[in-house]
Design a protein that fits this description.
- The chain has two helices and 25 strands.
- It is mostly beta strands and 304 residues long.
Amino acid sequence: RAFAGTPKGVFQSKDQGASWTRVGPEIGDGCVAAFAAGSRAATGVTRLFCCVTSADESKTDSPAWIMRSADGGGTWERVSELAAGSGGRPLYLLVSDADPHRVYLVKSWNSPEDTMYRSDDGGATWRSIFFLKQGDPRFNAAPNYINMEQKRMNIWQWSTTMAGIDPKDADHIMFSDYATGYHSDDGGGTWRSEDTALAPGQDGPDIDHRWEMHGLNITTVWQYYVDPFEPHRHYFCMADLAFWHSEDSGRSWQWMRDLEPNCYELAFDPDTPGKFWGAFAVVHDIPSNNPIIGYHPQSGRGCV
């Protein structure tokens, strides 16, 4: 059997997808915002889960109902309700075949405490498991430079872009937002950033500390330079995250975003060690087609 969740309900196929029949649940004038299913052959347990919200997506303050089926969609029960919060509407439900009773719910926006929830009793009760705000004793969202910028500028609620779970390990979960990605190997107890980690030997994270890159950084490096006089000094120019420099041949990096959010090129004085120029702009993605197609504004201030 295969199951598929759609905004208008859940469907089942018994012929490898050639035909489909609706198996509920009854959602009235609501909308199935998220769907997930888990099936463990060793125990014969199959669980289907739906998150039902208002069909009007502008009603971000409406609660969400969690519905569950234990018989392949034949019958459904409403097992819990989640109040609206700063994380917006539910976007993903995650269930692993390793443990169909455990469910995760991910909301539309990354917020300090209303992003991801976990249920260990088939959706009946929930607890928040992702805490983003520095200074909160519950903070568990591995520090990275994006966290630091959020703290400094008091900006939150990046849009959630994707979430997933290991079908063989209910503790291994991942999600990403518009700024970075996170994964947990202990069911949401602790999280690792997919883009950076604080370089060792420093007293607590801060925006101007050194960071090690994990390779899944959110944006684009336009240029990479090795200092012509001191080859252990490296530099790169980045979209949105401006200018970075390294004093240990690229093992760790420091961020500078004081001029404009985009750095496009450097030019080194061939005669004077340590002297170089940089081109900065508020306009994003000049080397790509985003300004051309109008996705980003074509005009804005810049400086050398």
